[in-house]
Structures are given as structure tokens and as C-alpha cells.
Amino acid sequence: MTAMLHTLHVAAPRRLMLACGLTLLGACSAPAPAAGILPPASQAGSQKTLLQGLLLLRGSAPHAQAVLQTSAGELWELQGLNQQQIDHWQRQRVQVQGEPAPMTPPAAGATGMQRPPQLRVESIRGLP
Asked: With a threshold of 0.90, does the pTM exceed it?
């Protein structure tokens, strides 16, 4: 009888700790606003996004992809830049404005790195 009471006495706090841990995990996993993302410059309701960071090339030629690395280390794939723009702004701090592309979920059973979010660039300018 005492063994059963001991088991119940120990199991209840464990369940409580598990419930609290799962609640905390859920709260912590909510995405935080990334540094380097500024409030939209246009009117409310628009999907425009303004980002600042370092324009880099990821991958190797001929399949290199222009990406923007924010000060928080977040990567964004930049779409819509021509080769002249990429060559001009590569390895420089820039501000880009555009519309985020819809996120595509990873394929079932896919492993490895997830593709970064994409931004359809409408304007780009250098930063000091």
C-alpha cells in the first residue's frame, strides 16, 4: 500500500512538470520578429516588406543564388535581381523592399536544411 501511495505522490508532480514544460515549449517556439526587418514603408494591409542586411551569393556558379543576411543572421532568398544588380551589390550592406513569396512546406520525409524565405525584390539601395 505504501509503495502505491509513493508512486502516486511522485507521479502527480511529474505530470505537472511535463504539462508546464510543454506549455513553455509552445510559448518559446512562437516566431519572434527578426532583427533587420523594418516596418512596411507603404500603407497598412500591404504585403510589402523592408529588409536590411548584407547581400551575399550562396551556392556556386552557374546556380548561385543572391541572399540577404540580416544582422540577426536570418537569410532571405532574393528574387527578381538581374546579374548586373547582383554583381554591383554583392558583399555590401543594402536595403531591399519587396513582397514575400508564399512559403512552400517541405516535402514529406525531407531532411536537411529548410529553404529560406523568399523576397520578390522591387527596389534595392545601398546603406552606409
From this structure: no
